[in-house]
Amino acid sequence: METPPVNPVGEKDTSQPQQQWEKNLDLTTQIRQQPRDPPTEILELRVSPDSDSQILENPQETEKLAAGLEGDSKSHGSASEVPEPLQASDLWYCPDGSFVKKIIIRGHGLDKPKLGSRCRVQAFGFTLGSGLPEGWTELTMGLGPWREETWGELIEKCLESMCQGEQAELQLPGCSGPPVRLTLASFTKGRDSWELEATEKEALAREERARGTELFRAGNPESAARCYGRALRLLLTLPPPGSPERTVLHANLAACQLLLGQPHLAAQSCDRVLEREPGHLKALYRRGVAQAALGNLEKATADLKKVLAVDPKNRAAQEELGKVIIQGKKQDAGLAQGLRKMFG
């Protein structure tokens, strides 16, 4: 900053405040003056007309600016307009742990997509062959075959947490590749599940169940399980005693979970069925298979024997019980051998 020019000799000084200002300026300069740094440099730094250039001269501030402008091509005229560094509130952890969302560009408003909302989205970064079209596409929340894809459930969960205009990156646990980027440009008004009539929920649940059965028969238990799960979430909001459809859905879900190598979840699904129908043979058989996989041979034997008590010719239960008996004998032999070594 240039100091005020000195009045020429002989020229009348008519500015008393000007002299006081110069005294204050000299005092400030003396206090802040450091070795080898002219005081004028300090004053120039304080009131430089180009505050952006000051930030760019500082490496740490440059990094912050780059992080804040990721995905934003607009220039900013002053330092006050520079986006703030990422805050904890910019991270959202999906409750089931399937991904972490980092907000790159904040959306506007408070509304989020709901059931039936038609969303215009853009996705980048999914692995080749995932089936998700690159670029802009329209997806309807809660409806459509896109939800059966491997990426469908992930995208739907993320969209449920986004506002219009929001851009976010999704980091998947155990995935070392670059994060997936998702942009929600716009969406139409939808409805929460509690806003649906009971008949509407039951109708949607039947559609999900029918589609899940098709997928299961086609050898796709993973997508079938997602269909059954969505149907159950719709029916869980019905008033007691609830829909009898839940029994069938839990039993079918258990079959999917066994094929997916999830015996613990399969046993839980069967428990839900047997709470309503203690004599449900398919649930008893599937829980017996799940308990055997978990190493609970006594519980497995009890369930399979209940099946055979009602249906002695049930070949699947006979074969599974035979496997459990053989596995039990092996466990007993191993235990006996260990005891002999210990006390022999």
UniProtKB/TrEMBL annotation:
Q: Where is the composition biased (Polar residues)?
A: 15-33
A single Pfam family it belongs to is: TPR_16
Q: Which GO terms describe its biological process?
A: regulation of blood vessel branching
Under the heading InterPro entries, the entry gives: FKBP4/5/8-like, TPR-like_helical_dom_sf, TPR_rpt
| Annotated TPR repeat ranges | 281-314
Q: Where is this region: Disordered?
A: 1-40
Q: What keywords is this UniProt entry annotated with?
A: Phosphoprotein, Repeat, TPR repeat
A GO cellular component entry from the record: extracellular region
Q: How does it assemble?
A: Forms a ternary complex with CDKN1A/p21 and HSP90AB1/Hsp90.
| Job description of the protein | May be involved in response to X-ray. Regulates p21 protein stability by binding to Hsp90 and p21.
Descriptive protein name: FK506-binding protein-like
Origin species, per record, is: Monodon monoceros
Q: What is the lineage of its organism?
A: Eukaryota, Metazoa, Chordata, Craniata, Vertebrata
